[in-house]
């Protein structure tokens, strides 16, 4: 669409309108060493799921290789990934956490 202003046509460009932010899935990846209880604790602590839901997500990762813990804006997703990886390394676990565009 376009509108007239002082004899000048100004295009109403989509890119000049407010856009919803891109969203990112924060995912955990399986490994053979990180204890299941540690993964459940991390999911509860950083993604605010209750123990039952955290256990389901952990088991999905364990059985299928990866699982989604939550969907966030880019800055929040990056912070979660950093917090989870830092917490795992502090405890000596190789747990991997990453993000992907939703
Ligand atoms: N596979 C791990 C085990 O058998 C458990 C595990 C689950 C590890 C989820 C990582 O993201 C993970 N101890």
From TrEMBL:
<keyword id="KW-0645">Protease</keyword>
<dbReference type="GO" id="GO:0030163">
    <property type="term" value="P:protein catabolic process"/>
</dbReference>
<keyword id="KW-0378">Hydrolase</keyword>
<comment type="function">
    <text>Involved in the modulation of the specificity of the ClpAP-mediated ATP-dependent protein degradation.</text>
</comment>
<comment type="subunit">
    <text>Binds to the N-terminal domain of the chaperone ClpA.</text>
</comment>
<comment type="similarity">
    <text>Belongs to the ClpS family.</text>
</comment>
<feature type="domain" description="Adaptor protein ClpS core">
    <location>
        <begin position="20"/>
        <end position="98"/>
    </location>
</feature>
<protein>
    <recommendedName>
        <fullName>ATP-dependent Clp protease adapter protein ClpS</fullName>
    </recommendedName>
</protein>
<dbReference type="GO" id="GO:0006508">
    <property type="term" value="P:proteolysis"/>
</dbReference>
<dbReference type="GO" id="GO:0008233">
    <property type="term" value="F:peptidase activity"/>
</dbReference>
């Amino acid at each position: 669409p376009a509108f007239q202003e002082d004899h000048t046509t100004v295009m109403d460009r989509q890119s000049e309108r407010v856009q919803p932010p891109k969203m990112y899935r924060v995912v955990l990846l399986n490994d053979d060493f990180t204890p299941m209880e540690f993964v459940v604790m991390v999911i509860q602590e950083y993604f605010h799921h209750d123990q039952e839901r955290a256990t389901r997500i952990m088991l999905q990762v364990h059985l299928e290789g990866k699982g989604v813990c939550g969907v966030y804006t880019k800055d929040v997703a990056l912070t979660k990934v950093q917090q989870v990886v830092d917490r795992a390394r502090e405890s000596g676990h190789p747990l991997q956490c990453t993000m992907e565009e939703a």
